[in-house]
Each structure stands twice: as C-alpha cells, then as structure tokens.
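Usage example:
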Amino acid sequence: MAPPPAAAYPRAHRPPRYRLAAALGGGILAAMVLGSLVDLVALQSVTALLDLAGLLVVGLFSTGTWLIIRAVDHEPERRRRHLSGAAIVLALALGLFFFAVNLLNARLNLFGVLLCLPTTGFALFLLRRADYNEREPWRLVLVAAGWGAVVATTLALLFESLWSHTIDAGLIPGPGQSVATAFNAALFEEIPKGLAVLLLFLVMRNEFDDVVDGIVYGAAVGLGFNFMETVVYMSVGGLPQWFFRQWFGLYLGHATYTALIGAGIGVARQLPGRARKAVAVACGFSAAIAAHFAWDAWLWYFPHPSDPGLYLLSIPLQYIGITGPFFVAVLALLVLGLRAEGRALAREFAAEAALPDGAVLPAEAPILSSVRRRVEARFRMLGLRGLGGYLWLRRLQRAQIDLAMERWHRARMEIDTPLEAELRLRDRVLAIRSGSKPPP
Amino acid sequence: MVAAADETRAIFRLLVGLGIAGVVILAIGLAQFVHFEPPGQRTGLSARITGVYGFDRKTGSTFGPNRDHFRTDEPFAAAVDWSGLPPAVVVGAGWFSGGFSLAAGGVGPAGAGTLGEHSVVPVNFGARRFPAGRYEFVVERYAAGRPVEVLARTTIVVVGS
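Running the assembly step on the lines above writes:
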C-alpha cells in the first residue's frame, strides 16, 4: 500500500506559528515570574507577591482541573491516581494562596521565614524521631505542619478579629476584657489547629494508630502555627521574638497545646464505644484550650516587667511555669503510649513468628521488638552488604512493623479494613524478603 | 484476645485528669469574667466623647482637629461632655493601652455632676513618649467601687515617629 501523501502541515489544527506564540507566551510568563521575584526580594513589593501567588494559584488550579478532566474523561482506568494528584495540586494552590496572605499580614517578612524554617524544620525532625516504633510518613507530618502554618492561622485571624470587633469591643477594660481576650486566643487558635488532627484521624486512619501518632500530628500542627506566628510577631518585635518563640517556645507553646488535642484523638482511636471516644476527644480539646488560656491570662496577673533584665528572665519563667506542666503531661502521655505500643508490637511479632508464612522469623522477633537491636541489625547489614543491604533491611523491618500494627488493631477489634489488608501486608513483607517487587 | 481497654487505661485516665484540670481552669476564667463583667448592669445611659485632640501640656488644653492617629511624641487628650449624664451617677473615664488594657491615665470615679472641670482627659504614661499601638478611651459607670458598665468608648492609634 502506498504511503499517504505528506500534508502541508503535519497537524493541521496546530500550525507551526502556534509554537512561536507558545514560546512567546512562556517567555512572558517567565519574565513575569522573574520580575516579581526580584521585586519581592529587592523591594518587598506587595504587588509582586500578589502577582506571584496569583500565577502559582492559577497554574496549580489549571493543572488540577486538567488532571480531573483526564481522570474522568480520558483515562478512567487511572482515575483514582489522577484524582489524588488533582487533590494534592489544588490543596497546594490553596495553601500557597493562604501563605501569601499570611506573609502580607507579616509585612512580607521573608527574613523571618528564612530564619524560622531551620528551627521549625529541626523541631519537626526531632518530633518525628520520637515516634521510634513506627515513624509517620513525612508527607503527612508536613501536611499537618502546613495546615498549622497557613490554614489554622487564617481561620484564627478571621475569627479572632470577629470576636475583637463584636465581643471585646463591648467589654470593660481590665481583668474581664483580658480574660475574654485569653478565651478568644485559646478557642479560635486551638479549634482550627485541632481540626487538622481530626481530619487526619478521619481520612488517614491507616497512618493514625494511637496516642503516639496523635501527639506527633498535633505537635506538628502546633509547630507550623508557631512558625507563622513567629514570622508575624518578628515583623513587629524583631529578633527577640524569634529567640523566644523558636527556642524557648518551640515545644513549650502551640506544639504542646495541639499535642494535647492529638493525644485525645489518638486515645479515642483505641477506645471502644462512641461515648468514651467522645470523652477522650473532649478532654484533649479541654486541656489544650485551658493550657493556651492560662498562658494568655497569666499576663494580666503578672505583666512583663519593664526592666530589660527582668523582662528577659520573666519569659522563660512564664514558659516553665505555665506551659511546663502541660508539656510534662504530654511527655508522660508519649512515654505511656510508646511503652504500650512496644509491648503490643513484641506480642504481635512473637505471634507472627509462630506462623509458618515466614513474614517474621522466630529469630527476628526479639530484634524487631527492640529499637536498639533493630538499628544494630541494620548497621550490621551495612557492614556486610553496604548501603543497599541497609536500605533493604530497613524496608523489611518497616513492612514487618506495619504488619504487626495491623495485627494489633485487629486483635483489639478497632479496625475497619478487611482481613485481606493484613494478607497484603504479609505478602509485601515476603516480597521484600525474597527481593521481588512488593505489591503496592 | 486482649481486652480493649487494658493497654489504654492509664493513658485514658491521665487524659481525663488533664481534661478535668482544663475544665477547672476554664471555669475559673469564666467565673472571673462574670465577676468583672457582671450581667444585668445595662442602664441605657450613654456619655458623649466629643473627640480626641492634640494636647498642650503647658496650658492643659486641646488644640487642632479631632484625630484618630498620633505619633509617639505627640501628647493627646479626649474631650468628654458630662452634661448628658445624671449628676449623681458615679462615673470615670480613662485611657487604656494595648491588648491587655494597661491603664494610661484618667479621671474619676466621681459623680458626673462634679466632673465638669475634667472635660479634657489626657493620656498619661509617665513618660514623654508613648508606646506605639492601639489606645482606647472609655467612659465607665461605677458601682461598689468598680466599673460595671461602659457608657462610651473610642479608639485611636499611636504610630512610631
């Protein structure tokens, strides 16, 4: 058969001039982004920030829409994956927009952002490591911190302003009004932060096992909130605000309050009966709101001294005296949670080792039950087979821990996934052990 | 099978203890709020603040137009018309600064009829410069020696010079 004659334009609906137009459009876009970036950094231009945020948001919304259309219309067989991608991109767009608004509120304090990123990042790193039995995925820890930094701060700002203009504006200046101000901050900062943990609990149940996970997610939300609050306060109070809020107050502040909410939700995850679950969640919120309230109400009784030396001394004392006891309580909950988790994992490893499947070998059970021995085994593997061996063993251990966690939840009848999920986890362990590609 | 509550009992109890402590703290706060903001004190009275003006410390008088912004080195004062209030009502007026309402000068409490010569109430922070921020001027009715009702209020902003 003779080949069809070559067309004048290979794709009639896309003549070559369109390519030039697209290149020009791309160039204009790049120039806008570059110009806005330079203006933002050099001139602290609000217009440049709005331009950048707008461009990013429109771009992300377009990508999200394209993914949805593709998922529904063009590739229905990959719908779930594309819809997840679209949800992430659209959430990112909203997050970026709220971040820009918060940055405006902080008078474009980019210096503050750069200064607070390492301290908050390091705090998140340490926090995640505290959950040594089964670390939460970075993506969820960052989502929690991101919610605290941009969504919770936006909600708090909206509702605190509303309260100030309606309720506070009618009160007698003095103790009553100060108490109302403290209630305002405690309620409208803790509830939006707590909602993030509640959403993670509802949506990401597989990654929300117990009180330990609740504390990690809650503290991550608090660290995110503290990050943005520091940036805003630094725009008025300068470096001392960074020092107090990113050193003394890094864990002894919002992280502690929201960790209490997380603890309540985490305990509820493992309690039978709706009433007890509700009590646990309510107790977490009550403790968090009270801790925050106590912090703000303290200033009425003990205002900061005007002497600079005493002022410097008074702030750490306030952190220790007011938030300190709540921080100790969070630590106690964390230790109790980790111990319960450790005991349960040891039991489940032993039970799994007794099965003939070979997902956990009898010799592995005592090693998996001890953090120290798990790490030692990995380093032994590093010495024997190099980095590849180390990473392989880490993956194997993590898959075995996931399996033991699933068994624990099933034994406690607190799981709504079918038994098939446990079988899949077991298959995953066996696949990693045999070196074949594990099932998704 | 493990009893569902066994492993979480100690954690749950600690959490409930914290929750109860939280409720107690919040209840104390609420009680304090009700004490200082007693309900049922509305009289329907209202005072008139005629404006906030620049203030000359030497002459003790106001000058210039009514304003809502001042610099930190610029003294200012509120002008109050007491004539609209019953003479026997015990009232006071004062300046408060910042989110925690630090007292920053005022007059009273005294009978409204005796405050005629105090129609100008300057801000007084004990220094020549004032901290930047929001300042609130409030006229209050007193009962049993403490303020129980706000009769008028206005807000100005002090900006760094």
